[in-house]
Amino acid sequence: MPETAEPGVAAAARVYDYLLGGTHNYVVDREVAAQMLRAFPMAAVGARYNRELLRRMVQYLIGAGVRQFLDLGSGIPTVGNVHQIAQAEVPAARVVYVDYDAEAVELGRELLAGNEFATALRADLRDPDSVLRAPEVRELLDFSQPVAVLMISVLHFVPDDAEAVRVVRRYLEPLAPGSYLALSHLAPAEGRTGALQQETRRVYNETVAEKLAIRDRAQIGEFFAGLELIEPGLVPLPDWRPEDPDYVPDEEDAPRQVGLCAVGRLPG
Ligand SMILES: C[S@@+](CC[C@H](N)C(=O)[O-])C[C@H]1O[C@@H](n2cnc3c(N)ncnc32)[C@H](O)[C@@H]1O
C-alpha cells in the first residue's frame, strides 16, 4: 500500500487532490499532473465533474432511502465528502471510507474526529474479504439493511479485468436487497479515437504508483450484471441526473468524453 513517507513516487490520491485544487500533494504529484494535463487537458475539469457526480449520486441515494455508504477508494478528503453530503440530509447516515493511501486515511480520520457515524479504514479494496470483515465496517454498517457501495473513479486503478469484476461481485454478495452500486470509470470517448486517453494512460502508467485501465461501455456495464440500472443508465458523467433542467448533452462537451457512470440497484 502507498506510504506517505515515499513522496519520490506520485500517488493517485495526491494527483487527484491536486487536480481538484487541494493542498495535500507533493512536487512529484504536481509534475505528473502537469504531464497529464498536457496529454489530456480536460483532466482537471474531469476531476471536478467527477466530484459533482459523487454529490448528485449520494443525494439521489439518500432520496431513495439509503442510510449506509461504503465508499471504496474514497481519496483525500476535500470539499463535499460523502458524509457531509449524506449527513446534511440525514444526520445519522453512516459512512465508511476505504482507501489504501496512508495520507488519505489519516486526513479522513482527522476530519471525522467526533463523528460517531463515519469512519475511515486503510485497506486495499482488491481484498474485499478483509474490508468486509474489518471492525470499522462491521460496527458501523448493518448488512441486513440496504448499503450503497460507491466505487467512484477508482476501478480503473484495478487494471486486471477479471479481478475488477470479481472484486465488485464480492462486495455485492453480502448486501441486502435494495442495496446499490454507484460507479464512475474512465472510458474512451465514444465515437472518437480515444487517442487522448491512451496518452493519459501512458503518462500515468509510467509515473504513478497505480496502473490505469480504461474500459469501454461493455466492460463497465459488466460490473452491473444482475442489478437494475437506475435512469438514465450508463452515461457520460455530466448526463447523469444533471441539476440544470435545461441541460442538453453536447457531443463536443469535453467532460462528456472523460468517462461513464451509473447507479444500479440490487432487486428485491
Ligand atoms: C481518483 S481518486 C477518487 C476519489 C473519490 N472516490 C472521488 O471520486 O472523488 C482514487 C482513489 O482510489 C484510491 N485507490 C486506488 N486503488 C486502490 C485500492 N486498490 N484500494 C484502495 N484504494 C485505492 C487512491 O488512493 C485514490 O485515493
From TrEMBL:
Q: Which CDD domains match?
A: AdoMet_MTases
Q: Which residues cross the membrane?
A: none
The stretch of residues making up the signal peptide is none
Q: Which SUPFAM superfamilies match?
A: S-adenosyl-L-methionine-dependent methyltransferases
Q: Which Pfam families match?
A: Methyltransf_19
- The protein's name is SAM-dependent methyltransferase
